[in-house]
Amino acid sequence: MTLAVDENRVDEVVKSLSRKMLINGEWVDSASGRTFETLNPATEEVLASVAHGEAEDVDRAVRAARAAFDDSSPWRRMPHGQRGRIIHKLGDLVLEHLEDFALLESLDNGKPYAVAKAADVPLAADLFHYMSGWATKIEGATIPTSGLDPARYLGFTLREPVGVCGQIIPWNFPLLMAAWKVGPVLAAGCTTVLKPAEQTPLSALLLGELAMQAGLPPGVLNIVTGFGEAGAALAAHRDVDKVAFTGSTEVGREIVKAAAGNLKKVTLELGGKSPNVVYADADLDAAIAGSANAIFFNQGECCVAGSRLYVEAPVYDEVVAGIREQAELIKVGNGLDPETTMGPLVSQEQFDRVTGYIRSGRDDGATISGGDRVGDRGYFVAPTVLTETREEMTAVREEIFGPVVAAAPFDSESDIMPTANNTNYGLGAGVFTKDVGKAYRTARRMRAGTVWVNTWNVFDASLPFGGYKESGWGREMGSAVFNNYMETKTVITDLGG
After folding, report:
1. Where is the catalytic site (predicted)?
2. How far apart are CA 22 and CA 58, in angstroms?
């Protein structure tokens, strides 16, 4: 295999990276001295041993974040413009380390290096650049009173940072999800403890190094690497004011329970089982390419993956055949191979989960195209199309989080919406049609936080993202994200007279 990156550079980047936790501006070992191994999912080989953070380490990090949030701290007294410049500098540094981040994402997560270089890393940098501008633009309001004498009483609001935040991120977009969390929390003036997924901790550690280079004061950003018990300790910690979690709906429920102790604020970006509706009047070439991208992008390890495909009956066979052809063109392999267009799943656990759903679909009577293991080493699964499906099938109802799409025909616009919305989830959805009115009607009726029309997987730092129903609470990105990290204080002043 020819590597997209020089092999010596691979060793250099991994070996130069800190394996410790970032607490109060210093790289420290876990209190227990324990470490854990992170694996390359393409080879199943150990990449690095990383500090195994637990409850004591979380407590140390929270105390550092609390001290950094004190009114007299450099962070709280810093002019907002200076805060914005630090955040913007962090975005610049991410771009300066574009290739290193892309390499770490490919090694630790499995995704193609070329994809991480073209999408994940630039989008993360853009998020910091976008959020840097908000540091000087979060405003309160002067409000005309309703029943009070306006010559005597002045009413206005202040937008203030919520405090210490615990932020727990997933393994499917390690750097990008860290940026989605850290960017707005810094712009809001909060402090944070970031807990990356145990499967993919490396890019977060490099981000921590760059944050210090950008001038972030000690304690503002702390990073605790570890397993679920560290995340649970962070969610339950009584000195954390706000917890933000991205991950599965099952774990999201546990986060809510853990946060109940001090009634900390909670935002959740959770699972999805997104419907993709293709009408007969669509540009079928674009619909086929877009639908394949909707499910196979990022190995299908995407919370908004278009995993439920509904195609109007007259073009059903043509569209499904086209997606099968697209699947057969996908080169499954090591993410560092420049010819690879789909990498491995992230772990043995995820491989077992995805292949289990494929077996379930077959057992329930679906016809399977693809779905085989690729190679005998690494967690590779061929892109998979299920046909002859029924709504009650487990593979149709439950989130698979892999490159598996369940397809079914429908007869008319009036028939499809009840079926498309027949899910506990509501994160993403899509529609392909040339009819603008039909596109608008369908998008309006879809119970999802994001609806794509004639495209899929298009994101921007300015656009809010989040879910309906069991896909979560709150929104990431855009101006809406600051509802997660700000308190509104009302000030009423008696001016006399």
Report:
1. 269
2. 11
Q: How far apart are CA 156 and CA 449, in angstroms?
A: 32
In the chain, the domains with their CATH numbers are 7-270+472-490 (3.40.605.10), 275-460 (3.40.309.10)
What is the spatial distance between Cα 482 and Cα 497, in angstroms, rounded to a whole number? 38
What confidence category does residue 303 fall into, taking pLDDT thresholds of 50, 70 and 90? Answer: very high
What is the phi/psi pair of residue 114, to 5°?
-60, -35
Collapsed DSSP state (helix, strand, coil) of residue 249: helix
Q: Beta-carbon neighbour count of residue 46 at 10 Å?
A: 10
C-beta separation of 432 from 279 below 8 A: yes
Residue 233, sorted as left (phi over 0), alpha (psi -120 to 50) or beta, turns out to be: alpha
What's the N-to-C CA distance of the chain in angstroms? 83
269 is catalytic: yes
* Catalytic residue selected from 54, 105, 198, 269: 269
| Alpha carbon 468 to its chain's center | 16
b/e string for 282-318 if b means 16 or more Cβ within 10 A?
bebeebbbbbbbbbbbbbbbbbbbbbbbbbbeebbee
The tens digit of pLDDT for each residue in 128-181 reads 999 999 999 999 999 999 999 999 999 999 999 999 999 999 999 999 999 999
Calpha distance 77→73 (Å, rounded): 6
Q: What is the rounded distance in angstroms from the CA atom of residue 157 to the CA atom of residue 33?
A: 47
Give me the amino acid identity at 415: D
DSSP 67-108: HHHSTTSHHHHS-HHHHHHHHHHHHHHHHHTHHHHHHHHHHH
